Protein 1
Amino acid sequence: MITQTFLCVRANALPPVPRRAAPAHGLAARFGTAFLTLVAAACAPVPQDDQGAPGAVAVTNATIIDGMGGAPITDGVVIAEGDRIVAVGPAAEVTVPDGATIIDAAGGAVMPGLADMHVHMVGGWDGVSTEMLGYRRYLNALLHAGVTTVFDAGNVLPFIQQIQAEIEAGRLPGPRVYMAGPLVDGPVPIWPPITYFTFEASAMWRHASQLAVAGVDALKGYAGLSAEMVDSLVQAGAEFGLPVIVDLGSRGDYAAAVDAGVLARAHAPSGPLSDDEIAAMVEHGTATITTLAVLESFARRRLTDLDFLDHPLIAATTPPWFLEALREHATRTLSDAEVGFVASIEERLMTAMTNVKRLSDAGVLLVAGTDAPYPGVFQGEGIHRELELLVEAGLTPLQAITVATHNAARLMDASDEWGAIAPGMAADLLVVRGNPAENIGATRDILAVIQRGVVLDRSQLVFSALDDLGFRTVGSVAAN
Ligand SMILES: [Zn+2]
């Protein structure tokens, strides 16, 4: 039986968002579905059944993009019951249950909620200044933009641990969070406050065991590690069921890391990449997280015309002082050295785009990520920009969408749980106007976000100076 309830954002008024960690990574079932009981969107009327689970939701009159690259279904219907998708197909073949909440896409499209598999919920607008107390703004911006999953690729461990736990329990609105916890770096780390230092390869077992106990989903090896250290980290991780994702900088020995068995590179290669290296990635099943958006940031390409800051996904979710600081950053005069640096990064962005297309063609698992926040790379809006850059790199819009949905779930060995539109999958859905299969920019024009079967009230996710305590960024996460 369906009844209407009306709840605001309070403890126990949100969809719990368990991520069901991957069995292959040895962390399965830490969070079962037993506590999936409650729920209602933030301050929105949501039909619930007698058990308090979300009532049926039907997305109608939509082109269905399944996230797995299947041919889009026109005039389709997707039904969610509880937190799951239960039916998908052409309107003629799917019956809408009585009492279901109807989301009429009016000829638009429905696709899986997006995944940004490289973010840091710690840096301010510039990615460097420390911004921890404003975490709600970041989480809201992500949900507002239809991002229902993120991988935090480096953070202060207890901080991101608690954010993950509160979201999973349904006490904090936010996307499904996977995390690496701290970076594992060499003896002179680039990001000291978010790093475990390593002086010798033998320390890796201790790092891996500590992080396994803390419940991280993957280890993040960083630029100061020697090839031997990366190898030790992969072996230590394997003992605890933790895969390793690496960012070894522009001069790192990625060939050795691929041989050692890392799960993924944290960024698309932006330098020379031989066919042999690509073949080795295919052979070892090494994935690549794309992060073209952060290269675009360092290349300042997006900063030449700041009109994009008026886009609702940014303007509605970003505090004014972030935007002011960004405008200042964009318009200041650069030194000759900086001009040279920017030009070199522009070249690397072009190389990375070429490489992304080559990796895609070769069958390497590509996964979308942004490395947000950085100047011009926003939590939430950033993944829409990444989709556009992937298409600019030569992927089809459908391929790009798969990279930002189903492939992200494959990276986390959770593709039977989320990241696609099919019966039995988590009901994380993005409903948009227009057809992103033809024009990737249409993902930005959001009609509705459904998380775990709950239609979110996006008006509750916009930035409000009245509700915000106005905390400012301080200091720096980076070493001086
Ligand atoms: Zn990063």
Protein 2
Amino acid sequence: MYKKIHLDAPNIGELEKLYLNRAIDSGYVSSAGPWVSGLEEKCAAYLHTAKAVATNSGTSALHIALHELGIGKGDEVIVPALTFIATVNPVVYAGATPVFADVDIRTWNMDPRAVEDAVTDKTRAVIPVHLYGNPCDMDEINRIARKYGLHVIEDAAESLGARYRGVFTGTLGDLGCFSLNGNKTITAGGGGIVTGNDVQRLNHIKFLINQARGEQGYHTEIGFNYRMTNLQAAVGLAQFERLEEFLAKKRAFNKAYRDALGHINGIRFQEEYKGAESSYWFTCIIVEDASVRRELQEGLKDRGIPTRRLFPPVSELPPYRGCRFIDRGNSRYIYERGICLPCSTLNNPEDIEYVCRALSEFYYEGSFVYAPVK
Ligand SMILES: Cc1ncc(COP(=O)(O)O)c(C=O)c1O
């Protein structure tokens, strides 16, 4: 078999081991300890935001953001239909109702016109998701939010390092939420980050995620155990120091895929809004002829190339069927045709070239004609 190609496996090395060992040696293995604040400071400095708070997941980051903004029962929150389900579940944890807005056919991101059509007098917030690292049309989303008095919580789980008009995603709304799950551009083994410029809010979030524990263990509110551990933060900080290296690799992978496949009739790439610079967490393609998608994925698998379908529209999943949906048919269209290509930073340029050759063969020959390399 050809050398192993990785879809989204994490890239963990000597620096992570070094920092993790230091954290273990310090005796601080749980949520106390210097690595958590170190990661928070590094993150805030990198993003040019006033403060960052580390959490135990991107999902808990989104939940605590909604909670902090006072969103709850009777409120509606607008979410894109095409996203990972973890964008939407926290809306329900908070007691609010998700309303789905369809995505734009070119960028696969929340369509601002659908967002505006989704607004009612119960709408309190909107959660733009920078899908696969690709920034949303934040000017339009913020304009709509201002017009109707809505909070903007960015789901930047997939977009660390992406920018919109030169400003990092996750710092363009009221609060931004990142994920440090194992498949993301950088990982802490698991974890999340909440960012923002309102220091008072961020301080309150820091308090809430630690069981709302006050002086002498006295509790004035119902808090959460959403703390990141010192061990996770040590790994996360090592990964942060390698972020530029990973972003450069993912950018190069995206360019290689586009250069090799961009001119093929029948393949389309996710497009970027004007002023957007994706972090290219994932490079995904649309296979225009939906009937060949499965054959293509299976042929690639036979050749040692792992791929994955895009997220199924959350509006179609059992817990969310029947929710209000401003549907233009785009989320389903993209889902039926979309494939995520190998993008782990464990791959090297030759691996991506190999993937491109296999895809080219399929398209130029009309199917896979050569036997898989053993
Ligand atoms: C768009 C999106 N939102 C939220 C999450 C949740 O992050 P986590 O897995 O860290 O809870 C993820 C990733 O898993 C995601 O891709």
